[in-house]
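TA notes, week 10

Several of you asked for a full example with nothing omitted. So below is the full record: structure tokens for the whole chain, then the designed sequence directly under it. When grading your own attempts, check the secondary structure regions first.
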């Protein structure tokens, strides 16, 4: 497989290592200093582009790939209010797009466990839900895409939950922000966001009643698990058309 890497930071370099370990060719790397090279000419012959950049640049990067006829895997979070536009473009162009808020196998197992637990708790009633996420200080968006996916799983499974809100003291970019989690309405799921040190990612979902507490927790130890998942997704996507997620890969 001939791959392009869009976003050549720590994650991009880990992806490059894994691509080479698995016998693939890295034919193009794009970062801030050569962003203008992301065009149809440089993408010619690329089987799959793997995109991990920033919320401000992801949409344009993915659009460029789709318009050039290049399959693209993206794990950038914080911009997905426009994902539907790119999915429509992908269908229109007969392209291939794979998006996931988190490529870790363990996190995707967490998503499934959380959805099922939310359904069970929703059928019983009497529980409040809180999601907490901790990431390194360089993470640009809050709440994390993983936390949002967990909240969406809760909302899908519990009839009395309608939306999520974010408690993120000291983080300017948080969406749906509230200043006091105690002020959240009963139909809201609170996501607490913390940015500290070099933490790769910790996510906890806590279901609590007056009598007991159920908790799901996942801790990412390093970036390799995320990078490997992205490479496996690229291998899966190569030669395909359509829109895919981790649900499709794990089937």
């Amino acid at each position: 497989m001939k791959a392009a890497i869009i976003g050549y930071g720590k994650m991009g370099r880990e992806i490059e290592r894994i691509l080479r370990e698995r016998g693939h060719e890295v034919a193009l790397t794009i970062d801030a200093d050569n962003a203008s090279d992301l065009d149809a000419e440089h993408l010619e012959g690329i089987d799959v582009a793997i995109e991990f950049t920033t919320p401000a640049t992801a949409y344009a990067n993915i659009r460029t790939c789709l318009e050039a006829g290049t399959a693209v895997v993206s794990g950038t979070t914080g911009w997905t209010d426009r994902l539907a536009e790119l999915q429509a473009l992908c269908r229109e162009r007969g392209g291939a797009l794979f998006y996931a808020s988190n490529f870790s196998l363990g996190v995707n197992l967490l998503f499934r466990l959380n959805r099922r637990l939310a359904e069970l708790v929703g059928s019983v009633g009497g529980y409040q839900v809180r999601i907490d996420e901790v990431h390194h200080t360089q993470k640009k968006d809050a709440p994390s895409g993983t936390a949002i996916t967990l909240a969406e799983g809760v909302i899908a499974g519990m009839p009395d939950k309608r939306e999520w809100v974010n408690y993120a003291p000291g983080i300017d970019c948080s969406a749906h922000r509230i200043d006091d989690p105690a002020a959240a309405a009963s139909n809201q799921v609170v996501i607490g966001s913390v940015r500290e040190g070099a933490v790769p990612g910790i996510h906890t979902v806590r279901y609590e009643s007056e009598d007991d507490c159920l908790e799901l927790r996942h801790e990412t130890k390093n970036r390799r698990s995320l990078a490997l998942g992205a490479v496996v997704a690229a291998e899966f996507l190569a030669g395909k058309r359509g829109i895919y997620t981790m649900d499709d890969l794990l089937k």
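The radius of gyration is 19 Å. Use that as a sanity check on your answer.
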